[in-house]
Amino acid sequence: MAHEHDHEEVPAFALELPDFEYLRYEVKDNVALVTFTRPKALNALAADVLTEIAEVTEVIADDPEVKVAVFTGEGKAFVAGADIAEINALKDVFVGREYSLGGQEVMNHIASLPVPTIAAINGYALGGGLELALACDLRVAARGAKLGLPEVGLGLIPGFGGTQRLPRLIGAGRAMDLILTGRHVPAEEALQLGIVNRVADDALAAAIELAGQIKKNSPVALALAKEAVARGSDVPLPEALEIEADLFGMACTTHDMREGTKAFLEKRAPEFKGE
Ligand code: DAK
After folding, report:
1. Is the beta carbon of 219 within 6 A of some atom in ligand 1?
2. What is the pLDDT of residue 11?
3. Architecture of the structural domain at 2-214
């Protein structure tokens, strides 16, 4: 007798997932979860891992089910940095620059995702690992997690956006403290400094809960709000306010704006379509 699944048709829009070796991708209740799965190397970002991260951001961007994306790591590290053995092999200025630009591009893929992103920092987030978390919109750290930019101790500087994203997030003075000492900052201090948004016993559970609060909102409004903050941070205030006004104007053309405001007036929950 044929098994009932033999006749099941695969929907035309089913996503074809690349074969990931260094990460796991799953979607549950509209939340994408990307888990780095190289715990023996503390999830260090070797070139192949960076390639897979770039690929998974495309999968997330193309998946209409996804409303929020969470990144986390297996084992005792979120990500312990770029792969130090690979960096050791970078022998001249051109190769080093290309390497840095390549890593920055991957972080930019994460930063420019239309859906909100959360780093669930379960353990060490060092060097490129912290830089990856800084490319996310929000960060939740587990009690006991350690964050830092230890590159100067390796004769390097942060090269995946750390010298730029960290000062933009917490100010140049506080960023200098981390960048020049290379020290490991405990989760609680990272919260005080404004590097992380929450500290929890279970970073992943707290990140999923945060994702739950975010995903109730209009996806199109979330994308426009992200764009306003991101583009506005890079320009003088008058220009930034114009960007906000332009994006506010765009929000006014959406179904979700009609529906959200109408639902409020009718004292009911909105049904957003993300358009
Ligand atoms: N790369 C490669 N392997 C790593 C690694 C890393 N970043 N971090 C850890 N591992 C490996 C260890 O070598 C060890 O491998 P085995 O010996 O077992 O083969 C395994 O992971 C477990 O690590 P440990 O035995 O060291 O574990 P512990 O609990 O004793 O220590 C630790 C945990 C996180 C304190 C320690 O592993 C550590 O300090 N790791 C290095 C952290 C670090 O320095 N991260 C920053 C990496 S530099 C640039 C572009 C990008 C970057 C810089 C420049 N340009 C092109 C300009 C970015 C740089 C970085 O991210």
Report:
1. no
2. 55
3. Alpha-Beta Complex (3.90)
Active site residue 131: yes
Domain extents for the chain?
2-214, 219-265
| Rounded distance between C-alpha atoms, residue 103 and residue 109, angstroms | 10
> What is the per-residue pLDDT for 8?
55
Which backbone phi and psi does 68 adopt, to 5 degrees? -145, 145
Element (H or E) spanning 39, and its range? none
Backbone angles phi, psi at 253, to 5 degrees: -95, 0
Give residue 49's pLDDT: 96
Atom of ligand 1 nearest to the CA of 85: 2
Q: How many CA atoms lie less than 13 Å away from 95 in the CB half-sphere? A: 7
Q: Whose CA is nearest to atom 14 of ligand 1?
A: 41
**What is the dihedral angle through the alpha carbons of 140, 85, 39, 59, rounded to the nearest 10 degrees?**
70
Q: How far is the CA of 271 from the centre of ligand 1 (A)?
A: 46
Would you call 242 a catalytic residue per the annotation?
no
Of 38, 40, 42, 95, the one to substitute when testing ligand 1's pocket (max ligand atoms within 8 A of C-beta) is 42
Does the global pTM surpass 0.90?
yes
Task: Report the distance separating Cα 143 and Cα 156, nearest Å.
Answer: 28
Q: Which residues of the chain have pLDDT under 50?
A: 1-5
Asked if 116 contacts 214 with a C-beta cutoff of 8 angstroms, the reply is: yes
The third-level CATH classification (topology) of the domain covering 219-265 is: Lyase 2-enoyl-coa Hydratase; Chain  A, domain 2 (1.10.12)
Of 40, 50, 84, 95, the one to substitute when testing ligand 1's pocket (max ligand atoms within 8 A of C-beta) is 84
